[in-house]
Amino acid sequence: MEKGARARRRTATALAPPHLLERIATDIVGLRREAEVLAVALTSGRHVVLEGPPGTGKSTLLRVVAEEAGLGVVFVEGNAELTPARVVGYHDPSTVLQIGYRPEAFVEGPLLTAMREGQLLYLEEMNRVPEETLNVLITALAEGEIHVSRMGRVRADPGFRLIAAMNPFDAVGTARIGQAIYDRMCRIAIDYQDEAGERTITERATGESGRLVRLAVGLGRATRDHSEVRMGASVRGPIDMVHIARGLCGLRGEERASRDTLLDAALAAFSGRIRLEEGVDRTPEEVVTEILDRLLAAEAAEEGDEEPSGGPPPRGRHGPAPSHGRMLEGADARAALRESSRRTLSRRELESLYGELGEVSPAVGTVDEEALERLLARDPDRAAALLSDLAAATDVDLRRHARRLAARVFVRLGRAGRPSHRGLRRLVPRSGRVEGDLDLERTLERSGGGLPRRSDDLVLRSWGGPRRALCLLLD
Q: Long-range pairs for 260-267 at CB < 8 Å and ≥24 separation?
């Protein structure tokens, strides 16, 4: 008890407001409130999950607060192959075969290291970790101890904390966290910084200021609000764009970055970072080009120019451009032919089929998403049929909106009913295959307690799942 009290007093002193606020002002941009909450949560002995999109400063926030508190951090990268043995620890097979199950044969994992030494266990990408591995943490969070096979009970030092970071659920490759974990942790939501904050971050990272930073940050923020983008770029995109644009200007001898230079830098920095909505016919390059041209047009209007620096945008460079009476060739011609050959429905035909059209699409080229949600709640089949026909509408804008919404709506309809259990893969023993983690207990049983003579005597544990999987495909 006395040791725990001393640890809490030491942490509280290190995180006294003057020290913490000075460090926050120096090293962290736009996360002052979150930093204060995290510091107090750690001082109070709470475990914390930091939840937010990539690039919002979760790792930086933890590093600053931990350094200010004088606490060590044990880092664990979460992924689908993280097994309980790699978190807790394991008995080294070769040592066990020589001296048996003794303490010196045990290789300590990051969880036990953090618990014994009273450090912070930082689990990154927690929602990518298998459920079986996360269940190991429940006892450590609730009781401050863990039971290890052949080692007994290990109690945590009072300074031990679990700090987990995770991206939102709709990020690719993630899964929902069970309530048993969430109920034992405090949650701090971290969002993107405001525009001024992102400019400050970009200026600090690049040493640049002015036009390049303004355009890069504006483009990055616009990707998050674009109707066809499911996940936009973080502040890392503007940082990369400024670095590349500055280098291209030096290479090409430009004092002021032209449109082509800005476009090349923007495509390199952003096209791989954004994720489009399902069903969108455009490419990330086309979306980035559209946003950049819009920003340059606004800049030209403010400066009184007729067109952006670098001349008019080249037609057809990233996707088909309107023909305006000119001859189409190559990919542009194929796209135009494919579009013209589709059977479309006029608005009059749609009105004759669906009396709800005026509610869902009150004006040409628009879709009222709230009205569509109400129709989905009343009659899901009717709403699905309407959305399918809207995706074949003669109105190009209406067709584009409907296709963007269709993927999300149909996936949600397909998920209706009893939710499936999170994660179907489990660690299962396999013999005759030299891959996975060695199951020492079963190996010794198979070899009669002695050294295994053949590879067939080894029993290994690897992730296994059902051999049959079902997938619903909607055309």
A: 260/310, 261/310, 262/215, 262/292, 262/296, 262/310, 263/289, 263/292, 265/241, 266/216, 266/219, 266/241, 266/292, 267/318
